[in-house]
Automatic annotation (TrEMBL):
Membrane topology listed for this record: Multi-pass membrane protein
GO (cellular component) term, any one: membrane
Species this chain originates from: Peptostreptococcus porci
Chief place where the protein resides: membrane
This protein's name: Ferric oxidoreductase domain-containing protein
Domain of life: Bacteria
This protein's record includes keyword Transmembrane: yes
Keywords: Membrane, Transmembrane, Transmembrane helix
Cross-referenced InterPro entries: Fe3_Rdtase_TM_dom (IPR013130)
Lineage: Bacteria, Bacillati, Bacillota, Clostridia, Peptostreptococcales
């Protein structure tokens, strides 16, 4: 259950370091990129059968980044910011660093993408040969992951203020709509990973956790859109009379 630990740590760090992240975003990206690079080196060494000695906690941190749990936790927080109530001070404090967290999420997911993309391609022969349910879960996981990466790249680039200024506000807003497909792809990818594994307490808890996180977000988002629409109609009606 790396995801629960990661989500707790990511939320607490984002909250308490919100001002720092906003003011010194470049420094933050450098620290996260260093961790990302370390996780790539870690993955390469592990894939080559090396055993590595770590100081306490570093092994777990590398595993959390490599498994996708750290990136997933950052994206879950970014996703939930879309339904935050800006009247609440603690939610506003987190919301102001949404663009920075999106960039951090992309950087920290990079080692996971590189590692699992390569190992999927290298093992594709045995994946397709398996004549059972796992062929379909693996193929769907792969397709969802590829679509997620394709959507993530332009969203990542346009999260930087420099590139954001180069496109019109309308084009930027339209591009942001693709974030919903991105979240849906993460959901499908993770569900396929866990559905393809033999049933166990940890697998079922992971499935339940991701299911609850993504469905509760969907319900909150739909409620928010309906509420906005209702207010708009009421405003139009008030202006008419
Ligand atoms: C934007 C791209 C991606 C995101 C956001 C993402 C996100 C995630 C998340 C949140 C998890 C669950 C981690 C956990 O609960 O411990 C995960 C696991 C996994 N993902 Fe991805 N993923 C991405 C790309 C990929 C790609 C390209 C592949 C390979 C084709 C892949 C294969 C896997 C596998 C095999 C696992 C299980 C890992 C393990 O337990 O060691 N993912 N991913």
């Amino acid at each position: 259950m790396y995801i629960i630990v990661c989500l707790t740590i990511v939320t607490l760090l984002s909250y308490f370091l919100s001002d720092y992240i906003k003011k010194y975003s470049i420094n933050t990206y450098i620290v996260v990129s260093t961790l990302s690079l370390m996780a790539i080196i870690h993955a390469i060494l592990i894939l080559n059968g090396n055993s590595i000695e770590y100081v306490v906690g570093l092994k777990q941190l590398m595993r959390a980044i490599d498994s996708g749990a750290m990136g997933g936790a950052v994206f879950i927080l970014v996703m939930y910011m879309g339904v935050f109530d800006m009247k609440k001070a603690y939610q506003r404090k987190l919301r102001v660093i949404r663009a920075e967290l999106s960039i951090i999420g992309c950087i920290i997911t990079f080692p996971h993408n590189v590692h699992y993309l390569f190992s999927f391609i290298m093992n594709s022969g045995s994946i397709v040969k398996a004549r059972d349910f796992t062929v379909w879960t693996n193929l769907m996981m792969f397709a969802a992951a590829i679509i997620a990466i394709i959507i993530m790249i332009p969203l990542f680039i346009t999260s930087f203020r420099y590139f954001r200024k180069k496109i019109s506000a309308k084009a930027w807003k339209n591009l942001q709509e693709y974030a919903y497909i991105f979240y849906a792809m993460i959901f499908i990818q993770v569900m396929m990973v866990y559905l393809g594994r033999p049933s166990s307490l940890v697998r079922n808890l992971n499935l339940l956790f991701y299911f609850l996180i993504f469905t509760s977000y969907t319900v909150l988002k739909i409620k928010m859109v309906c509420e906005k629409r209702r207010l708009k109609i009421e405003k139009l009606a008030a202006n008419k009379y």
